[in-house]
Amino acid sequence: MQSRPRFELRGLLVFWNFLLALFSIMGTCRTLPEMVHTLWNYGFYHSVCLRSYAEANTVSSFWTWAFVLSKVPELGDTVFIILRKQPLIFLHWYHHASVLIYTWYSYSELIAPARWFVVMNYIVHSTMYSYYGLKALRYNVPKSIAMVITALQLTQMIIGCYVNVWAYQVKTSGETCLVSFNNLNMSLLMYASYFVLFARFFYKAYFAPKKQRTTVYTKEGQKLEKNGSIKMSKID
């Protein structure tokens, strides 16, 4: 593979990104209303510690199951990077591998906080894959959009950490919260590590002095460093 020329795959890349964007938008539309309804009518405790999203709502249950399955085809992002001979950064492969393992493990327990994790990820992926679909079409998307998406990713990590800490406190107080301590520890470690890695990327990509900026590549094979500016990398 090292001696072979890189594959372009631009048409397939456009299709792939918009397919995942459409899937994520549909997932958002089918799971977000249930979470809003739960928060509005039953409160934060119910949204974090009880799993009515899977036991009392067939639509939300199906799209949670679809979310879990989607972590396997999402590994296709890595395949594109390899075939197009782009640098495979640590954040990308670590994120994809750990999310796959944690998601499948959590689904086996049907954890209650998954309501939050699934909805947040669907929302972020809706914007992210739409962005990369446009980039694959060689649309000149403003840099500010990339910054907003990375900021959404950081917000997702902060909320993920808060949900885990809150659920941990509920369990230690003796109240019911349908998630194991092992899962909470794994999830908190995962979200905290993501926050550090995404924050480091955010700083290097948009705020570091030009000499300190690392050349990063998008999934389309374009250098992100151009005329002294860096755009968002292919991470989620």
Can you offer a commentary on this structure?
The protein is globular, with a radius of gyration of 19 Å. Helices cover 69% and strands 0% of the residues. It has 236 residues and is an all-alpha fold. The chain has helices spanning 10-42, 44-49, 52-55, 58-70, 76-83, 90-109, 114-136, 143-172, 181-206. The chain starts with 9 loop residues before the first helix and ends in a 30-residue tail after the last helix. It is built from nine helices and no strands. The chain has one domain (10-212). The longest helix is centred in the N-terminal third of the chain and has 33 residues, at 10-42. Helix 6 (90-109) runs antiparallel to helix 9 (181-206).
Labels describing this entry:
mainly alpha; 236 residues; disordered C terminus
Shape field:
globular
Overall structural domain count: 1
Give the termini separation.
Answer: 26 Å
Structural class call reads mainly alpha
Count the DSSP helices.
Answer: 9
Radius of gyration: 19 Å
Low-confidence stretches: 215-236
| Range of helix content | 55-70%
Question: Beta-strand level of the residues, as a percent range?
Answer: under 5%
